[in-house]
Backbone:
């Protein structure tokens, strides 16, 4: 008997559970509870299910090379997603705009099974840095291609999207502006602050202590507290309102995210600079460099990987936290999440949550790769 | 030492505030407008705090048991093949925003404390698992050699060597989980879980900054206390292992 790969057996079990459970949920409108519909109840469904099962079972053999495993996993994932789209257009009666077909447990488990299979295959492949960038770009392009092709247009989330396309684009822009804007501000303020406490040892404990305490304030409260504080600043400080300071809208959320971002930036700047060996610094001074030159030409380039690691932490964290801005009227994908929760319209929640997760995921992986690249450059 | 005294003082003030919030009203009065109440009175702050802490404690306990078990499994011979995959899954899982996880738990579990607990548990698994893994795999080779030389069985090695050595890192993972859960649990109130988030959200809805402030302060002080409590446990565990 052929040797089995234990992880692949696990993926097959997850996939089998996915095949047994309903693929989608059909609802007469978006509020009422729905009924589950399995893959096998669809035209061609049995053939697709048999194909998926065959791939899952065959994948259990340990002899499969990693490339083949990856190709099979991606093919499986695409097949599952396309069946979701096909199920939606098949189940929705012609011209009915009220009926909703939402992904159900079967879809999520199948996607999880094939997704894990793909992750496992990528691990086994031990790809080079360049290949991993390529794989990431390929995955993003594939996802964008499927979304743009219209194959999923019948699925509930995409129908929620279709009715508020302009709003979605606006909130997406607001979300990105919040995440990247707060990151930019934190870098502008945090790097100099990090350099300052690297050179002036006396303030180190105080600055890090204050930033640490800021981090413990629950995000919901920090966002809320910013509203009256900034409202007061805008009213009391001449010129502040003209400079864009405001107690309503996006600004309080931006400031709250900026405050959360400061600790990683400052402490990683400090750690990066402290990590440069004393011998390197002395050699630079010995070459006749001034203090500024040492900082700009020796210390900062060597500290870059640690700084990039801070950018990763901040970006992933703030993409997630920006959701809370939706609760205080600051815009972003959180608007859909909390609107959906209020109306118990889960498709709307997904419309906010899925892009946020995708964004955080891509940003996290891309910056991980960038950090590894910078490490190799610094070494 | 001064830090310890400040912490103890903060803890005492917090306790006094939770038991009898009324005398603190003048402190919060300046943050209200139009004669709104300064202290949240719809539900007792003490019961909300206890419920908040109970949710976090249950989530952290569950994450620790399951996370540690998984970490032990993937570091045994039978589970080795899962190790790289488990690493990838934890790295990817940690990029998932907690709020999104919370929102996605609702369709499966409905509103209330249940989904909050599950979301906190799932999110808390990752730091515990990651740290337990680091603790179980990061031992000096000399220790492993010595254990083998003494003729310890794998089970004896796990209980007498691996787990005690991994304890400080495991506690650090639990600390991360607890502090993250404490903050994230406040968002649970948007899906009707009984936590201190209720106070903050009431403040947001009625533009009463005093409520936002007191909810945030209670959670913040609790987070600092729990953070330092775990740190003390960690350094005690490290000293006992002779690592410090």
Residues:
């Amino acid at each position: 008997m052929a040797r089995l790969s234990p992880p692949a057996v696990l993926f097959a079990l997850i996939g089998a559970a996915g095949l047994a459970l309903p693929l989608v949920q059909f609802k007469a409108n978006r509020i009422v509870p729905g009924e589950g519909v399995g893959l096998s109840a669809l035209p061609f469904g049995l053939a697709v299910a048999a194909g998926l099962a065959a791939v899952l079972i065959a994948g259990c053999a340990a002899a499969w090379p990693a490339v083949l495993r990856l190709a099979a996993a991606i093919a499986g994932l695409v097949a599952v997603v396309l069946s979701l789209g096909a199920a939606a257009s098949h189940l929705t009666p012609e011209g009915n705009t009220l009926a909703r077909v939402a992904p159900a447990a079967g879809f999520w488990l199948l996607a999880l099974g094939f997704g894990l299979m793909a992750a496992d295959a990528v691990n086994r492949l031990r790809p080079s840095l360049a290949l991993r960038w390529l794989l990431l770009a390929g995955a993003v392009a594939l996802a964008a291609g499927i979304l743009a092709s219209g194959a999923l247009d019948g699925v509930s989330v995409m129908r929620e999207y279709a009715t508020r396309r302009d709003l979605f684009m606006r909130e997406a822009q607001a979300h990105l502006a919040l995440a990247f804007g707060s990151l930019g501000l934190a870098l502008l303020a945090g790097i100099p602050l990090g350099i300052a406490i690297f050179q002036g040892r006396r303030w180190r404990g105080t600055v890090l202590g204050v930033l640490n305490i800021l981090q413990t304030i629950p995000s919901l409260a920090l966002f809320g507290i910013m509203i009256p504080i900034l409202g007061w600043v805008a009213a009391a400080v001449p010129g502040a309102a003209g400079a864009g300071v405001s107690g309503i809208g996006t600004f309080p959320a931006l400031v709250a995210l900026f405050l959360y971002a400061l600790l990683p930036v400052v402490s990683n700047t400090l750690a990066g600079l402290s990590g440069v060996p004393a011998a390197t610094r002395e050699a630079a001074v010995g070459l006749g460099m001034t203090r500024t030159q040492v900082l700009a030409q020796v210390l900062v380039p060597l500290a870059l990987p640690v700084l990039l690691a801070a950018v990763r932490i901040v970006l992933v964290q703030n993409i997630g936290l920006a959701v809370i801005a939706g609760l205080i009227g600051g815009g972003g994908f959180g608007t859909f999440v909390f609107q959906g929760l209020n109306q118990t319209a889960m498709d709307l929640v997904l419309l906010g949550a899925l892009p946020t997760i995708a964004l955080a995921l891509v940003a996290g992986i891309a910056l991980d790769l960038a950090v590894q690249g910078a490490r190799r450059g610094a070494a | 030492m001064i830090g310890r005294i400040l912490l103890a003082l903060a803890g005492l003030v917090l306790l006094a505030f939770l038991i009898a919030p009324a005398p603190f009203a003048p402190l919060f009065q300046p943050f209200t407008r139009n004669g709104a109440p300064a202290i949240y009175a719809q539900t007792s702050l003490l019961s909300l705090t206890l419920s908040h802490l109970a949710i976090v404690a249950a989530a952290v306990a569950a994450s620790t048991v399951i996370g540690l078990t998984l970490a032990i499994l993937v570091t045994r011979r039978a589970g080795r093949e899962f190790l790289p995959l488990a690493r990838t899954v934890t790295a990817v899982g940690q990029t998932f925003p907690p709020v999104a996880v919370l929102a996605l738990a609702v369709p499966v579990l409905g509103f209330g404390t249940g989904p909050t607990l599950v979301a906190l548990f799932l999110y808390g698994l990752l730091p515990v698992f990651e740290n337990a893994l680091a603790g179980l795999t990061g031992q000096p080779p000399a220790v492993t050699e010595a254990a083998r030389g003494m003729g310890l069985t794998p089970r004896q090695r796990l209980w007498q060597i691996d787990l005690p050595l991994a304890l400080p890192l495991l506690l650090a993972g639990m600390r991360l989980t607890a502090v993250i859960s404490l903050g994230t649990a406040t968002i649970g109130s948007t899906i009707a879980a009984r936590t201190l988030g209720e106070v903050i959200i009431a403040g947001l809805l009625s533009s009463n900054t005093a409520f936002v402030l007191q909810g945030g302060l209670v959670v913040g002080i609790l987070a600092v206390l729990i953070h330092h409590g775990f740190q003390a446990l960690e350094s005690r565990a490290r000293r006992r292992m002779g690592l410090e």
